[in-house]
Amino acid sequence: MASVLQANPREDLRGSATRRIRKEGYVPAVLYGNKIESQPVAVTGIDFLKTVREVGKNGLFSLDVAGKKKHQVMIHDIQIDPLKNEYTHIDFFEVDMTSEIDANVPVRLNGEAPGEKEGGMVSHLMYEITVRCLPGEIPEEISVDVSNLNIGDSIQVADIRSSVSVDISNEDEETIVTVQAPAAEVENEQAPDEQAEEAEEAEEGKSEEE
């Protein structure tokens, strides 16, 4: 693999030691997999960021632990401090290149919907789609073309299933994106119902008075 991230074993797992390595620019992490025991490690925050930018969050790369052994891994989970916007912990999962796994792939919308030009609003409902495939086949993203969507139109999982090269685990009926009518039209559509409700309430009021 082209990308290699260096990692050091973590022997001291006390909170004070964890805080110290964070101050030194490292991120505490854990390496685990189906065929290895969990191992606490640490990686430099700068090198980790470079690796993520290079391979993406679903990409595969080598984790070199103390120069002794390289593990083919992918990022399973990242914890971030929302105030400092810093990585606080990472889970690295060693993958078996011959076994299928589940992965969440980001969805990117392409094109401009005609319905948006008419005043409609593009509502992006699914930002990730779950796929099942070999680790080396995980797509970086799934592109969805919205250039044919008019007001009231939508794209569901069933509509893109045949165009994606890997198996999608989501249900066919799940909606990825839809173009909603302008707010004014929605309010006008609701007005008759509201008027009917007011009429019913008025009738009920008269009946109570009688």
TrEMBL record:
GO terms for molecular function: 5S rRNA binding; structural constituent of ribosome. Residues 5-92 form the Large ribosomal subunit protein bL25 L25 domain. CDD domains: Ribosomal_L25_TL5_CTC. Residues 101-182 form the Large ribosomal subunit protein bL25 beta domain. GO terms for biological process: translation. It comes from the Bacteria. SUPFAM superfamilies: Ribosomal protein L25-like (SSF50715). GO terms for cellular component: cytosolic large ribosomal subunit. InterPro entries: Rbsml_bL25/Gln-tRNA_synth_N, Ribosomal_bL25/Gln-tRNA_synth, Ribosomal_bL25_b-dom, Ribosomal_bL25_C, Ribosomal_bL25_long, Ribosomal_L25_dom, Ribosomal_uL5_bac-type. Pfam families: Ribosomal_L25p (PF01386), Ribosomal_TL5_C (PF14693). The keyword Lipid metabolism does not apply. Residues 181-210 are annotated as: Disordered. Keywords: Ribonucleoprotein, Ribosomal protein, RNA-binding, rRNA-binding. Residues 186-210 have a biased composition (Acidic residues). Part of the 50S ribosomal subunit; part of the 5S rRNA/L5/L18/L25 subcomplex. Contacts the 5S rRNA. Binds to the 5S rRNA independently of L5 and L18. This is one of the proteins that binds to the 5S RNA in the ribosome where it forms part of the central protuberance. Belongs to the bacterial ribosomal protein bL25 family. CTC subfamily. This is Large ribosomal subunit protein bL25. The lineage of its organism: Bacteria, Bacillati, Bacillota, Bacilli, Bacillales.
